């Protein structure tokens, strides 16, 4: 008798800067089977490229598990940040390019800040993404510890 493996599908966000998109696509190809079992959330062009990889003979229904947001510079990073604030992201894979200036650097910084604030595990390169996605917690009932913002929300405000 085989034991069935149960897991809770995760909401996995995939993002890549232009010069890192091919690296992310190659990474998605390697992890296609695992990613196909989860909800994928992508920004802009990255989402279209990921969809092409996941929408293969092996993963015919995977496009149903893909949410495409706006392009990063057009607000996609902020949309993804809102998803994190609404507890709609379980982990973030963001292949960012540290060698190129980006017109939306402040949005990227804000996205990473929100990921830390809401205790979302994230990876910013292939090695850390490999470690993160290979964790047995990816396919378990692991619940992210919710941060308590009570003290911040109940602080005394003074007018100047």
CATH fourth-tier homologous superfamily: Methylglyoxal synthase-like domain
Ends apart, CA distance between termini = 71 Å
CATH class: Alpha Beta
**What would you say the CATH architecture is?**
3-Layer(aba) Sandwich
The number of strands is 5
H/E series: EHHEHEHEHEHH
Explained architecture:
The protein has 160 residues and is of the alpha/beta class. It has one domain: Rossmann fold. The protein is built from seven helices and five strands; from the N terminus they run βααβαβαβαβαα. The chain has a five-stranded parallel sheet, with helices on both faces. It is globular, with a radius of gyration of 17 Å. It is an enzyme of class 4 (lyase). This is Methylglyoxal synthase.
In short:
The protein has 160 residues and is α/β, with parallel strands linked by helices. The chain contains 7 helices and 5 strands. The protein has a single domain (11-153), classed as Methylglyoxal synthase-like domain (Rossmann fold), CATH 3.40.50.
List keywords for this structure.
single chain, 160 residues, alpha/beta, five-stranded parallel β-sheet, 7 helices, 5 strands, methylglyoxal synthase activity, Methylgl_synth, Methylglyoxal_synth_AS, Methylglyoxal synthase, lyase
Strand-helix topology:
Layout: E1 11-16, H1 21-30, H2 32-35, E2 39-42, H3 44-54, E3 66-68, H4 76-85, E4 91-95, H5 105-117, E5 122-123, H6 126-133, H7 150-153
Helix pairs in contact: 1-3, 4-5
